[in-house]
Design brief:
The complex is a heterodimer.
Chain A: E1 5-12, E2 17-22, E3 25-30, E4 42-46, E5 49-53, H1 56-76, H2 80-86, H3 89-93
Antiparallel strand pairs in A: 1-2, 1-4, 2-3, 4-5
Chain B: H1 10-22, E1 30-36, H2 37-45, E2 56-63, H3 65-68, H4 71-81, E3 86-90, H5 105-110, E4 114-117, H6 121-130, E5 135-142, H7 147-159, E6 165-171, H8 174-183, E7 191-194, H9 196-202, H10 208-214, E8 218-220, H11 225-240, E9 246-248, H12 260-269, E10 270-272, E11 275-278, E12 282-285, E13 289-291, H13 300-303, H14 319-323, H15 347-350, H16 355-361
Parallel strand pairs in B: 1-2, 1-7, 3-4, 3-5, 5-6, 7-8, 8-9
Antiparallel strand pairs in B: 10-13, 11-12
Helix pairs in contact in B: 1-11, 2-16, 7-12
Classes of the chains: A alpha+beta, B alpha/beta.
Amino acid sequence: MCLGIPGQLVERLDDGLARVDVSGVRRVVSVAFTPEAQAGDWVLIHVGFALARIDEEEARATLDLLAEAIAAELADASEPSNRVLLGEEEERGAGVASLSRSPARPGGSERRPGA
Amino acid sequence: MRFVDEFRDGRAARALAAELRSLVEPGERVKLMEVCGGHTHAIYRHGLDALLPDEVELVHGPGCPVCVIPMGRVDDAISLAERPEVTFASFGDMLRVPGGRRRSLLEAKARGADVRTVYSPLDALALAQRESSRQVVFFGVGFETTAPATALTLRRARALAVSNFTVFCNHVLIGPALHAILDSPDTEIDGLVGPGHVSTVIGTRPYEFVCREYGRPVVVAGFEPTDILRAVALLLRQLREGRAEVENEYGRVVRREGNPEALGAMREVFDVRPDFEWRGLGPIPRSGLQIAEPFAAWDAERRFTVPGARIEDPKACRCGDVLRGRAKPYECRVFGTACTPERPLGTCMVSSEGACAAYYAYGRHRRSAA
């Protein structure tokens, strides 16, 4: 029920409405709850309303943390028990940094005090 | 960035799964409740349960508005829909919810009631404008995620003076439901995965009582696999370090103060009911919303009379136990036999976000497969 779908704002219309692009499908939604959203911004859409502007900076920060987790895991991969879970060598090698535009920070394993 | 695929990265999920294993002591038991039905669905759809350490058990919470609507209110909706002058507009997932004697809105429609599926309450209002000879009643259901949409639609109905539009209001609040669950003597939950989209509206502050009064950590999470795994990791780390705080894993859409415009619309249009019945949980004080006096003309319960009967849940159905985390769906006698998504007995089987429907759809039919 509380399903929210990301869409990109194409243009603001009259009457608190805006045209959004959701995976190539365009529809009109209310932006009454996201008055700050402008064309090009991503918004979270729920039952015809843009409920929140998606913060790209925050999203990237999360992706950076994920990239760190992967990097930390790769560092541990020499441990035989981890090999099966980590899957094939090629897959592991494939661009950690591709997850987000920011490269994985070095020393990511510091985040894992329990490890 | 499309804000979906990036958070479904298998390598990140595997790395997080390894991190989770490092955060539990062998043999300990940790029970975490994912409050939101959207999380329940995502967990089974993506098979995240298989990535969790054996020590961690997920308990499915009451955060599915379809699942918690009591049968009496469904019967009230059907009685409205069956009035000859009424066009009853509802979200699609409410249509198969059984009321008393297993009757649903879909069956009422089959018998001739004018029931329409809408995607947005604004579509229901547009329907009323288009068909001005009909009394259009919108079935308002949902948590704080959806209530602002209904509120804004009512504001608009008043501004445009649309007199043939009303709302049958069943909106509910997540905070009082969490209180009720945490107060229940047989609930043993160590931490909560907080609902993501409700929190875009209410923010993270309303969960602080869970930490303060019950000493349990809360992590508000998004709906992609790595969001949920990361939330579990943050909860386990808090438990390990003896902390009980509200953390926000879903910072890309959730702010601490929530959405002031949406909250303002809710405050203007709704009042809190003294109490409201929840399926499986019974009446919970101050947990439901009703339409406030200035919008009384758009309140279906004031314009029409509804039976308002209280109907006991069917005896065979254990939705109540499932909603409180006391039983797994496959422990219910009618799960997958008398109760299936095609012909549900209990609400948890109706909504795709219900725990029973998720277990049924993704093959968790037995304990061994769960």
